[in-house]
Design goal:
Elements lengths: L16 H19 L10 H8 L4 H17 L7 H33 L5 H9 L21 H17 L5 H19 L16 H6 L5 H13 L4 H8 L3 H17 L10 H18 L6 H8 L1 H22 L8 H33 L7
Helix pairs in contact: 1-3, 1-13, 1-14, 3-6, 3-9, 3-12, 4-6, 4-14, 4-15, 6-7, 9-12, 10-12, 11-12, 14-15
Length: about 375
Amino acid sequence: MNQEIKTVSNPFESKINSIQVLRAAAALTVTIYHLKDVIGKDEPFKQELDYFFNSGPSGVALFFVISGFIMVYITKHATFSLLSVYKFMARRFIRIWPAYAVITLVYFLFQSRIGLQPGAFKSLILSLLFIPVTHTDPPFYGYAFLPVGWTLNYEIYFYGLVAISMFFNRFRWYVFFVIIFITLVILPGALGYITLETQRTADHGNGYLNMIMNPIIWNFVYGVIIGLIYTNEKLFPIFATLFSRVWLVFMFISLALWQYWSGFFGGLGPSQWGLGSGLMFTAFIFYNARRPMHFPDWLVKVGDMSFSVYLVHVPVVVILGNFFKRLGYPVYSTGTSMFFLALFMTMVVSYLSYQFLELRLSGYLKQLLPFMKRR
């Protein structure tokens, strides 16, 4: 990785490519974690992939930290008005829902050809509405029809919290933290159970109530705190100077990677992979603020289309496997070669999804909404 030394006095001067690189890492980590299941126990690369990617779900924690940071970053200069809040939620919804809905519906149509499980249609509707499918099995709560969609339920909820907070203008983050304290501390305490482990939360009989009290949301809070430091004129120079020290950055990233590979405190909670993701993100973002790196264009591009990578990789591997079985060659539906084929096709389909769903379709739908000018 080539590095260009250049002082950045204003963190808002340009696109933060380091975030796109972290998005690429998160998406590829989750993707490879899922795709490697097609490789048999004694086949080539199985042990290596298991070692490097058994903690693949940690990419979700990193995605949540990034989301928290981005919401602070893009709303720094926002002012209160019903129109500004409407535009914020419209942009967030249009950014996620069209691509998610199309890919989910395609996956539903494919599954309907090979046989749907009982309750599949209900799961589809709840998924498209960003509502947990069940009130059990935290933090997934029944997954979504497109399995990775369970994380989007949390994303949309988090955007809703930010939108509510925006009504309070310069006090919005105070309000945000009050809501977080109520939902993640006071309510769980009043109902008798507080934990930082996302899979050991109490069941209160309602999926959405369980979801908003799940400690996985602390990962967004990590990102918000980092974002507030990054966008603060007094704190930014202090942290940027602090993390200009290579040894400190190396220590933070090494600790995060050690946690990832060792399995130490593995899990999606804020004291588990959330903590490691927060450390890595902090070191990476502030080091790059003062000493911008030149990242390979292809890596930044993968970051750009990371949402599509995240959405399509499960349908791609399932459809490919079924394709070979229907052709009468089930042997090609699994194995190391199938892994690489699925990974390659995921990149191809992700590029098409990014171009036609994330950019074109979402852009077209945005113009249909009132008060949304073309950007």
